[in-house]
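Loading example: each entry is read as two labelled lines plus one structure line.
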Amino acid sequence: MSKQTIPTPKAIRGTQDIFGLEAEAFGHVVETFERVRKLYRFRRVEMPVFEKTTVFSRSLGETTDVVSKEMYSFEDRGGESLTLRPEFTAGLARAYLTNGWQQHAPLKIATHGALFRYERPQKGRYRQFHQIDAEVIGAAEPQADVELLVMADQLLRELGIADGVTLNLNTLGDAPSREAWREALIRYFRRYEADLSDESKERLEKNPLRILDSKDPRDKALTQTAPQIDEYLTDEAQDFFGKVTAGLDAAGVAWVRAPALVRGLDYYRHTAFEFITDRLGAQGTVLGGGRYDGLLEALGGPATPAVGWAAGIERLAMLVADARTITEPAADVAIVPMGAAAEAACLGLAATLRRGGLTVDMGYRGNMKKRMSRANESGARFALIVGDEELAAGEATVKNLATGTQERMALHAIPAHIAA
RNA sequence: GCGAUCGUAGCUCAGUUGGUUAGAGCGCCGGUUUGUGGUACCGGAGGUCGGGGGUUCGAACCCCCUCGAUCGCCCCA
């Protein structure tokens, strides 16, 4: 562009500047979420983007990858370790405990905003990314799981991206079920340890459930015949899962059982789910969540059942943009003043029309040809041309940009003409 | 953190085995038209070839480093 001696700073890796149509798609996702969440009476929450590091390290577990290498942590001037939130749930749980929101239990809340993880960027995966999030805290009932899932389903439908998206559903059972299953898996995989991929050999020690969703063909051969959670579900856990699936069926939400869908951390119980699309490659999960009875205790609170989900706005926006359901809003009218006197008068005209709810474009500069050209690009149905002649008569020339026909008209008659 | 592919104009890309002043389309600006857009024609601006180093008489092209992007792995709480 120019010979600069001052180098322009570049954007941070993994961040994005979202503009125009993409930003419209992004906003559409958030607006749709806001609308749907109100239908289900989820209350809005605004949260800080940073917390004490312990909020995340305790709730997520010190040894998880997220905590050990993916958090943006720093010390403030008082020497306290703070962290940009890598997820919503831990902060919401903290707020629930520190603000006494127990009084509202069961509390249905929703929020959205930026999250930060120090990861290698990929399609639909960024270091600063954005999610919408819904949680029910203080409800042990399967109805909470159902309500969240039905809401998620409705959201995807209203976004027009439900085609090609499948709800994958699993249960991890209650604590005894989960523990029995976990031990059975360890016994099973230890027998075939030599045949496992290197990653899964390590998972066997750290996070055995994760072997089940390994992509390595060597592992896949073994996971086929691995013990299933169903064999280890207690009656209570079975009953819980049955109520969730029955609720989904009653609400007309399609789902498939995904026995390999797991959550690594111990406090995950019962329901685990992901809405997965076939259109985003390796980043196919479009919305995911589950029940996390036990998290609140990890933060020093009383035993509190909770369930929730989150969805990446960028990924949803990509699907929305692919579906071509989004356009940048067109103007209703474009005003084309000619001359200084007309320009001043047109500021008044523009304000009047906008106060009346019309979308109005009026350029800052340019000759008439240029302004007409801009009027055309704005998508306006009408151009209002005001020169000295019109001004003197209290009129404007109203040009229909689609047909090219135009007529002189009194200013006060314009709103009705446009509305017609 | 690991692997692969790729960085040329605002955008999408071309650029021969290394060989003069690096091209096209779209977009942008101006003109044909100083009160009329969308079409057409004419003209113009715009490039440290991502950055640095090296090889060579000569590098957009070859080599090394680096930054970034894309795709995948790990991970996805």
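Residues 331 and 378 of chain A are 6 Å apart (CA to CA).
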